[in-house]
Amino acid sequence: MSSGVSDTKPSGGRARRFATRNWLAIVLVVLAVVFIVQNTVRHEIHLLWVSVEAATWLVLTVISLLGVATGWLLHRRRR
């Protein structure tokens, strides 16, 4: 005798949020890549006592990777 209540969870919910987060991440990565590719001029970079001249795209790529690594490390600690 079935009570008519299904044991399955309603579709959407978590799966929809997961997909939205992925699409947002993809859009942000594409925008970052476009921004990096468009900035190819060389600049002098100063960090503490070190000065180097580097292409802007290289500096932006390194900073982006550092940001991704920091976010990944902080996300791993919360679990």
Kindly summarize this structure in a few lines.
The protein is elongated, with a radius of gyration of 22 Å. It is built from two helices and two strands; from the N terminus they run H-E-E-H.
3D structure, described in words:
The protein has 79 residues and is α+β, with helices and mostly antiparallel strands. The chain has one domain (13-78). 62% of the residues lie in helices and 15% in strands. The chain has two helices and two strands; from the N terminus they run αββα. Strands 1-2 form a two-stranded antiparallel ribbon. Strand 1 and strand 2 (50-55) form a beta hairpin. Helix 1 (13-38) runs antiparallel to helix 2.
Structural class: alpha+beta
How is the main sheet built? 2 strands, antiparallel
Shape: elongated
What are the secondary-structure elements, in order, as H or E?
HEEH
How many structural domains?
Answer: 1
Total DSSP helices? 2
Number of strands: 2
Distance linking N and C termini = 41 Å
Q: How confident is the prediction overall: mean pLDDT? A: 77
Report the C-alpha radius of gyration, rounded. 22 Å
Key attributes of the depicted protein:
about 80 residues; alpha+beta; 2 helices; about 60% helix
Topology at a glance:
Elements: H1 13-38, E1 42-47, E2 50-55, H2 56-78
Antiparallel strand pairs: 1-2
Helix pairs in contact: 1-2
